[in-house]
Amino acid sequence: xxxxxxxxxxxxxxxxxxxxxxxxxxxxxxxxxxxxxxxxxxxxxxxxxxxxxxxxxxxxxxxxxxxxxxxxxxxxxxxxxxxxxxxxxxxxxxxxxxxxxxxxxxxxxxxxxxxxxxxxxxxxxxxxxxxxxxxxxxxxxxxxxxxxxxxxxxxxxxxxxxxxxxxxxxxxxxxxxxxxxxxxxxxxxxxxxxxxxxxxxxxxxxxxxxxxxxxxxxxxxxxxxxxxxxxxxxxxxxxxxxxxxxxxxxxxxxxxxxx
Length: 259
Ligand SMILES: Nc1ncnc2c1ncn2[C@@H]1O[C@H](COP(=O)(O)OP(=O)(O)OP(=O)(O)O)[C@@H](O)[C@H]1O
Description:
It comes from Niallia oryzisoli. Pfam families: ABC_tran (PF00005), BCA_ABC_TP_C (PF12399). It is built from ten helices and ten strands. The protein has helices at about 45-55, 75-80, 100-105, 115-120, 125-140, 160-170, 190-205, 215-220, 240-245, 245-250, and strands spanning about 10-15, 20-30, 35-40, 60-65, 70, 85, 175-180, 210, 225-230, 235-240. With about 260 residues, the chain is of the alpha/beta class. The strands form two sheets. Strands 6-7-8-3-9-10 form a six-stranded mixed β-sheet, with helices on both faces. A four-stranded antiparallel β-sheet has the order 2-1-4-5, covered by helices on one side. Helix content is about 40%, strand content about 25%.
């Protein structure tokens, strides 16, 4: 289908917490397949913006449209079903569950077998379980985690936990994947590998990706377009080169490295 309709349209969106306008009048349009960066100083409103896209917070102004359908007011699980999944700034895995189970949990709701057949342990349930397990292992392979499938998630090194979170988000078959600081705590080699992996999964799964990241090398290296938030307002958008040279961005990051 050829259409000019953006995958995601964020129209004059904002949110107020008591007296604080954490995000104000944000307008964003993202086309299917784009890999977008969202940057800004600490406290700029980036995570709050993701929280609005995923139904954790309901915007107090404006609307969020996915494929033309309004998302505001839907609970997070409905938004996941509609095609948005995410990772978190602070890793949120089920530490006591195995690596494999962490992925299986993510797409349990998408599995074809019914709750009844699962309760009765009918053959359909086993077919469903087997299918789920095979698919989960496929995701783990992409992230080079299949060798740790029976390990408790909490025992993985930090960088691998971050990769497992992305694997789990992908297992919900999103159209739009939101990554909140995916390279946080990673060493330069892990960050480099992650950059390549993000590009790869975007192509492999026809994804659209928005990533929040403080690692400028990652953002500039992998994103085609970048939006910049400062004090809850969008102050710039453009290609990495345009953003690097934008005086407003340089000012917002005064004292921080932009290139
Ligand atoms: N539930 C809430 N109640 C009150 N204030 C909130 C709430 N959530 C976020 N805020 C405020 O909104 C502002 C934006 O915070 P947010 O975490 O979105 O910034 P950020 O750009 O993601 O920062 P960082 O890069 O440090 O993660 C902050 O002032 C924060 O204190």
